Structure formats: structure tokens, C-alpha cells
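If you are new to this repository, start here. Below is one unmodified record pulled from the training split, so you can see the exact layout before writing a loader.
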Amino acid sequence: LKPGAIGYRFQLPQKVHPVSAGIKGGIVGGLLMPIPAIIWALASGHSIWYPVNLLAGLIIPGTTDLPPEVLKLNLEMFHPVGFLCAIVMHVMMSVGFGLIGGVLLPTLPSIPGGPLLFGGLILPLLWSGANHSLMGLVNPLLNEYINWPWYVVSQLVYGIATSIVIIRSEEITIPPRGPGGDADGPSVPPGWLGCFVLVAVLLVGCSDNLPGKPALANAYVMPQDIKKFDDLYAQRCAGCHGANGKLGPGPPLNDDLFLALVTDEQLRSVIADGRHGTLMPAWEQSRGGPLTTDQITVLVKGIEAWRTVTTHVQRVYPSAPPLTAPAGKDTGNIAVGQKIYAAACADCHGEHGEGTDGMAGPLNDPVFLSLCSDQELRRYIVTGRPDLGMPDFASASGRGEAFSPLTGEQVNDLMTVLKQWREKTSSD
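And here is the target side for that same chain:
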């Protein structure tokens, strides 16, 4: 068509499909598109509600705030609200893209199979690619649960079905709007291709680093994607074990003797499984915690990096009692334990554990003993609390000339005294 001709439209066809064709095509495509998704769900061992809940999760707030194990279970279940949201979203998108197809297909070049090729293949692939890229940014957690090859199959089924319905509909003529300008003038603006190329070339070197854009370092990171030791330790451990592994309400982790005695397997086990009956929780997801196995490994390696083999550690390590009492050998002689307490502990903690002015606090205290497990008390006897000035099992500082390093059996005897105090205060 040239300017001045009856029915002239700049870059528009003379005939188009009616709006009803796009709506019908969108409805037919929307009815067929879930079939591949349901086949994939059943073939992969999921319920038919799995793809429905994935779609609903895009608009229902708080879906990805659930722990991964709970989220997986939640995706398999039927949720009335989620089902309703998914239906509404599916209908709107199906009809909306059907209307877009009804407008675009008549404008394509008249080549054999052009509209079907574009609507049934090219447009679904472009839409799938855009979704794949955006989903990794908008909702990276749900992105992990989507099977993208099957997603593409669903989009192709929708695109082919919608395009066939639209193409087979009867086209209608656009009413003429009257004459245009010069009948011999060009149908397109002169130099449009050169302008397009010039703009494209100029934009190639542009940066998206505009003023006010948030820095990548400040971007939100999903909890399961945090892999830096300092960040993990600060969030999960520092509250009990101190900002740098020292001087916290819990046992210090940044302790040379403790790190020399504890094994990698013990560290991993305690972090992953916690300590039953104590305030130390299980952190691994398989135990109900928030951390992945990789994050547990990061914590173990980070704590190991604090390990420093000092001269004192080299001297006392070979004779150090184990941090955990051997099975069935955690009970000692209370009479012997009282003598050991008098020689090793009384100068700081008082003759009967009542504490001393200006020295250490009381041990024979119901609150203290109820908050400390047997494992924690034994740990303190063996490694001491260097951050609080408490000597370890071998240090003679403040203990008199007759003191000698404690053996594993003597630690058991001393533990028996502390257990008796706890039982007595509990009964009182």
C-alpha cells in the first residue's frame, strides 16, 4: 500500500483476525497446555497438584519462605486458594497471549507457514527463554523445582494450538480511513534502516550502571546460598560462642586445646545434629535445621582454620583426657573427686563451690548447673576457659604446688562431684 491509496495503513495489513479469534485460540491453547505438565508430574513421581502449586507460588506471598523440606511437601498437596490463583493466572495469560497472537500473526511476511512457524515455535521459545532468565532473579527457589524442557513442551503445545485456531479464522477487512499523502511517496520513512543500525551501534557500549542502582554486593542472598564462613558464623553461631569464637555464653570454639582435641567428624556431627538435651540445636536441613550440607562444611572448615598448634598444646595434648567420656565410663569416685576439687578448683570457686570474692563465680549454683550439660562441664574441665582465665586440665596456674595434670579417670571423679551438686540442688 502506498500513501494516498484507499485503505492506506502504514505497515498494517488490510485484513486482520477478529478479536474473538485470539480469545478462542487462547482458550484452546490454555486447555491443551496443562496436558504435558500433568504427564511430566505423574511420570516424575509428583502429584498432579505439583505444577499447579508451582504456578500459584509465583503470586502467593510467603511460598518460598518455608524450609525446603516443608516446601517440597507443600507443593505436592491440594490447596484451594492456590488452585484458584493458578486457574485465574492461567486463564488471564492464555487469553492475553491469544489476543497478542491474533494481532501479530496477520502482520508477518507472507511466507509459507510463516504465521504457524512464528506463533507455534518462535514466540513460545522466546517466551520460555525470557521466563527462564527472569525466574532466576524473581524467584530463584521455585526456579530449582521447574523442569524447563517440559515447560518448553507445554509452551509449544499452547503456541501451535493457538496459532492454528487463529489462522483458520476468517479475516475481516479494516475500514479505510481516507487518502494519505503523496501517492508516489515511500511506504516507509527514508533511511529507517540506517537509523536503526546507528542507534543499535551507539547502544552497544552503554552501561546499565546508572546512578542509584543498588550494588551487586548489596543484593539479597537466599539463606541457602550463603557460603561465606564469616556470614554463616555471624548469623548462626556468634550469639552463643562469641563474635570471634571467644567470650560467649556457650563454650568457646576458638580455643587452641579444644581444636587440637576435637576431630573434623565430631565438629560436623555436633553442628549438623546438635546436642540432645542442651541448647545446641541441630543445624542441618535433614535434621530439621536451616543449613545445607555444603553450609555445614563451610562452618567446619572455617572453625578448623582457627586451629593453632602452640607450645602449650604440643606439651599437654598427648596426655589430654578425651572431650567425651567413653561409653559406660563416665562415673567416678565421689570421695576422690572431692579431693581433686580441693586441689584443682577450690582456690577459685570456693571450698564447697560457693565462689570467692574477686575470683571465679560459684559452681554449686542451681541455675548454672541446670544450664550446663554434663558434656559442657567436662569440656570446661579439660580445656578450661582461656577467655575467662580458667586454666585447663594441665595448667598449674592458681592451683598450688601439689597440683598435677588431671587424668581421664580424675575428670570422671570431678564430674561426679558436680553431678551430685546438681542432683542435690534439683531435689531441694
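Two things worth knowing about this chain: The CA atoms of residues 330 and 412 lie 6 Å apart. The longest strand covers residues 15-16.
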